Amino acid sequence: MPRLRGRLSDVRRVFFAFFWLAWVSTAVAAPADLVGGAAPSVRARALDGGGEVSLDDHRDRPVVLAFVASWCGSCRRIAPALRALAERHASEGLVLLALSHEPRARLRRHAPEMGLPLFQCTGRTAVSYEADAVPTLVLIDRARTVRFAGSGASALRGLRASLARVLER
């Protein structure tokens, strides 16, 4: 009987691991469905009460949207790389907008730690970009076409490669 319990336990572990991996791969792959399509509109509020920002404010400029959360360790880890990317390509018109749909008070408290241009968006904006996980990174070209979308800290690598192609055009 103990042998059977051990085998059942192993089967349960494998079963759990399989479904967990299937779920994670689905969540990570979802934003890629946006690539090649028109970028959904974005409206977000400045944390200082300075009004709204939208994609229309940045016509003819490539835009990186970074959907982040104050509690997200991966978001904090990639923030310096995103900031450096935006600074390096600012002369080429690149705009970085970090978006979160957390309460404004929480965002204000954590904005200095993130060090990103942080704006409060609605949950509807996150849904339109399929940002089910954070960080979700989206690259929009000058023609308002989504050229890259990915979730997780590993998305930064794909963003960099896609950005190089967008800036060549």
Strand content: 15-25%
| Helix and strand element order | HEEEHEHEHEEH
Oligomeric state of this protein? single chain
Largest sheet: 7 strands, mixed
Tell me what the structure shows:
With 169 residues, this protein is an alpha/beta fold. The chain has a single domain, classed as 3-Layer(aba) Sandwich (Glutaredoxin). Helix content is 44%, strand content 20%. It is built from five helices and seven strands; from the N terminus they run H-E-E-E-H-E-H-E-H-E-E-H. A seven-stranded mixed beta sheet has the order 2-1-5-4-3-6-7. Strand 3, helix 2 and strand 4 form a beta-alpha-beta unit. The longest helix has 28 residues.
Q: What layout of secondary structure does this protein have?
A:
Elements: H1 2-29, E1 43-46, E2 52-54, E3 63-67, H2 73-88, E4 95-100, H3 104-114, E5 118-121, H4 123-128, E6 136-140, E7 146-151, H5 155-168
Parallel strand pairs: 3-4, 4-5
Antiparallel strand pairs: 1-2, 1-5, 3-6, 6-7
Outline of the structure:
This protein has 169 residues and is an alpha/beta fold. The chain has one domain: Glutaredoxin (3-Layer(aba) Sandwich), CATH 3.40.30.
Keywords:
single chain, 169 residues, alpha/beta, Glutaredoxin, seven-stranded mixed beta sheet, globular
